[in-house]
Specification:
It contains 8 helices and 14 strands. The chain is an alpha+beta fold. The protein has a single domain, classed as Penicillin V Acylase, Chain A (4-Layer Sandwich). The strands form 2 sheets. An 8-stranded mixed β-sheet has the order 1-4-5-6-7-8-9-10. Strands 11-2-3-12-13-14 form a 6-stranded antiparallel β-sheet. Helix 2 packs across helix 3, helix 3 crosses helix 4 and helix 5 runs antiparallel to helix 6. The chain starts with 6 loop residues before the first strand and ends with a strand. The model has no long low-confidence stretch (mean pLDDT 93).
């Protein structure tokens, strides 16, 4: 298997952009649409009728939030020969289940660069559906993301200096709301931390999420609940770290209501320890070393299959180090302990 993700570029008006994506990624999108509900049902049972109810109640909110994004999905659906409902299923599938991904992420500002990084721990069956896609939307910042084919946005960066990683945050949720990936795309349409927070806050959200950022104003982490957005920053140390539990003082009580996701506290303590002293290292090699860490293997920052009954099949599917100022990402396709990071640049 190739250790490099396929790369694509699309541009134009929302409908044109969507059609280019659908034309290039049609086979992968059809595969994802076919398997999306099956993947949800690996952890819980959701009928297509129930999924359609979530789609139809969320669509008006999505159109009110970002009509251009819905128009892009219409273009993609046309060119990929799937229905708009199928495209929306991809966007709302994490409104149908409790967990999306367990990840360890951090944002660093140093003398040698400004990065945001993470290990994305999830089902390895998503690997064949994953691509690196550069979008050049008319009148908005270009963005490059590593993403499953068909999603409106995912992990990556824009040309305005925003870099973004995503973590699951166990907290209260609901089925009806603006899809999470729409708010992520909204962040890519901004050029500042203030704009990023506003893009998330103005949505009627369905699920909680953690969004790790590097911005022109510094490193920041957004703990997003359905009620508000809390911002974590530390400009004295010029870094922020996060696993999969709430860290903001106003949200700590939520942790008592939800089970810990794949050893979140242990990974949090470990990444904090690894990043305590940079030892004069450049940020990118320092990040690579931390993301390859095997303390507690196989339930480590570099995660491997194990005997956990719910998530033992999860492993590190993607390791990402994002450097927006250089308009590039360092990615591994699979666990970073046995894969070399490869460079992907905005095309």
């Amino acid at each position: 298997m190739s250790h490099r993700f396929p790369e694509f570029t699309a541009s134009g008006t929302p409908r044109e952009l969507g059609r280019e994506i659908g034309e290039q990624l049609g086979e992968l999108i059809r595969g994802f649409c076919t398997s999306a509900l099956e993947q949800v049902n690996r952890t819980m049972k959701v009928s297509r009728a129930n999924a359609d109810r979530v789609i139809h109640t969320s669509l008006p909110l999505a159109e009110a939030y970002a009509p251009d994004m819905v128009e892009e999905l219409r273009g993609t659906a046309e060119a990929a020969r799937v229905s708009l409902e199928d495209m929306l299923l991809l966007q709302v599938r994490n409104q149908l289940q409790a967990d999306d991904a367990g990840c360890t992420s951090f944002s660093l500002w140093g003398e040698s660069g400004r990065i945001v990084a993470q290990n994305w721990d999830n089902d390895p069956l998503l690997d064949p559906l994953t691509v690196v896609l550069t979008r050049r939307p008319q009148g908005k910042p270009a963005l490059t993301t590593v993403t499953q084919a068909g999603l409106i946005a995912y992990i990556g960066f824009n040309e305005a200096g925003i870099g973004l990683c995503l973590n699951t945050l166990p907290a209260p949720s609901r089925t009806r709301g603006v899809p999470h990936y729409f708010t992520v795309r909204g962040i890519y349409e901004s050029d500042s931390l203030e704009g990023a927070v506003a893009a998330v806050r103005r949505a009627e959200r369905a699920i909680p999420a953690n969004i790790m950022l590097t911005t022109p104003q510094g490193p920041a982490d957004l703990e997003v609940t359905i009620d508000d957005v809390r911002v974590l920053t530390d400009m004295n140390r010029k870094q922020v770290t996060h696993a999969n539990h709430c860290r903001h003082p106003e949200l700590l009580a939520i942790n008592d209501q939800f089970p810990e996701l794949i050893g979140s506290r242990g990974r949090q303590a470990r990444i904090d320890l690894l990043l305590t002293d940079d030892g004069g290292h450049d940020e990118i090699p320092r990040a690579m070393e931390a993301l390859r860490d095997h303390d507690g293997h196989p339930r480590s920052i570099c995660r491997h299959p194990n005997d956990d009954p719910a998530h033992g099949h999860w492993c590190t599917v993607i390791s990402a180090i994002i450097e927006p100022a250089a308009r590039r990402m360092f990615l591994t396709r699979g666990t970073p302990c046995d894969r070399a990071y490869e460079v992907y640049e905005m095309r």
